[in-house]
Design goal:
Elements: E1 7-13, E2 16-22, H1 25-43, H2 50-61, H3 68-85, H4 95-104, H5 110-129, H6 157-167, H7 173-182, H8 186-190, E3 197-198, E4 203-206, E5 209-210, E6 216-217, E7 226-229, H9 235-241, H10 254-271, E8 275-277, E9 280-282, H11 294-306, H12 311-318, H13 323-330, H14 335-348, E10 349-350, E11 353-354
Antiparallel strand pairs: 1-2, 3-4, 4-7, 5-6, 8-9, 10-11
Length: 360
């Protein structure tokens, strides 16, 4: 008498009924995968466009295996890839098209390039196995190195003065000052709601962040969950904008932040003497090319250093997952910090000898 099968799987896949039996779970998995691949080969061909194939690939392989935020990130990168390559039939996309797209994003961050490279390889490897692409292009696609992560820098005294002048009454005043004086990441700042603001205790609670697709999710890491102090001089500005407890402080539209910051940069350039012609700025631009929004957060960290805040406390306020991240900023010794150190040493030691006073 034949041995009974211990495992069985039944489902309707692509409107085709599957009924598979096996002696082991591995055998069952292999049989189901093979059956689905056979069905896919029968309904997928090279005429399917990149956007549709990519969507089906994500639904089939990622939807139930990754987190919701990760899936949204995959969708975001797929949309960017489709825009860059063009929404063409899979059979009409060749290795040269993929390589030219990868080369076009070589100035982006290494992490972004890796995400898109991995997704392209996965999609076209899957396309080859399912008959939608004649060649597995993932084998020969070259990933560009990409730009090194930008650690940022602090604002110069002039930049800080011009920025604060431009922000006076500007629609981005509260947003930018929260980053400058509370150290939030821009994505954390844009996800704030009024229940996170305690003006009696002068504190701000960080528990969310805005994702690239406009959704709200957790902060960058578990260290991102934190409470930071609000400086007293900023409290009146919060009162001016106060709304209901569950209302957002700022628009969740990802383009709102970009357009607001572009306007701030434009106004700063004008305030610093940039010429204008037909409502357009005329080069050269007084504002440095590396003047980015993240510099405000970097400035907050260096301000903590100048104020003598211990690095372990600064690390918690910044929401860094590791104190070594904070140390990269704290060790950027400013001229002011060097002068303070020199004064302390000069007052304490004379010709390499102690002045005789006991330390406290």
């Amino acid at each position: 008498m034949a041995k009974k099968y211990e495992h069985r799987h039944r489902e309707v896949y692509r409107n085709v009924r599957i009924d598979v039996k096996a002696h082991t779970s591995k055998e069952l998995h292999d049989k189901v995968s093979k059956k689905k691949a056979e069905i896919d080969r029968g309904i997928i061909d090279g005429s399917m466009r990149l956007s549709e194939f990519g969507r089906r690939y994500l639904e089939a392989t990622k939807l139930r295996t990754v987190s919701a935020s990760w899936y949204r990130d995959l969708q975001y990168n797929l949309a960017a890839i489709v825009r860059g390559i063009g929404d063409r039939p899979m059979a009409n996309i060749h290795l040269l098209d993929l390589q030219e797209y990868m080369n076009s994003i070589s100035n982006m961050a290494e992490s972004t390039i890796k995400k898109r490279y991995d997704l392209i390889c996965q999609i076209f490897r899957y396309a080859y196995r399912n008959g939608a692409s004649p060649v597995d292009y993932s084998e020969n696609l070259v990933k560009p190195r990409g730009s090194a992560p930008v650690n940022g820098r602090s604002l110069t005294d002039r930049e800080r003065a011009v920025l604060l002048g431009v922000l006076d009454g500007h629609r981005g005043e509260l947003f930018c000052k929260i980053i400058l004086y509370c150290g939030l990441r821009p994505s954390e700042c844009q996800a704030l709601q009024w229940s996170d603001v305690d003006l009696q205790r002068c504190t701000l609670t960080v528990s969310r962040a805005l994702k690239p697709d406009g959704s709200i999710g957790p902060p960058k890491s578990s260290a991102g969950y934190r409470t930071v102090p609000i400086p007293q001089h900023l409290v009146p500005l919060f009162h001016e904008h106060r709304s209901g407890p569950f209302d957002p402080l700022f628009s969740h539209n990802p383009t709102w932040r970009r357009r607001m910051w572009e306007n701030v940069q434009r106004e700063m350039n004008l305030a610093m003497g940039c010429q204008i012609y037909r409502n357009r700025l005329v080069p050269p631009y007084p504002l440095a090319d590396d003047f980015v929004m993240y510099n405000l957060r970097h400035t907050y960290c260096t301000d903590l250093e100048k104020a003598g805040v211990p690095i372990n406390i600064a690390s918690r306020l910044m929401g860094h997952s590791n104190i070594s991240i904070t140390s990269k900023i704290y060790t950027h010794a400013s001229v002011e910090a060097m002068e303070i150190a020199r004064e302390l040493i000069d007052g304490k030691f004379i010709d390499g000898k102690s002045d005789g006073k006991e330390s406290v």
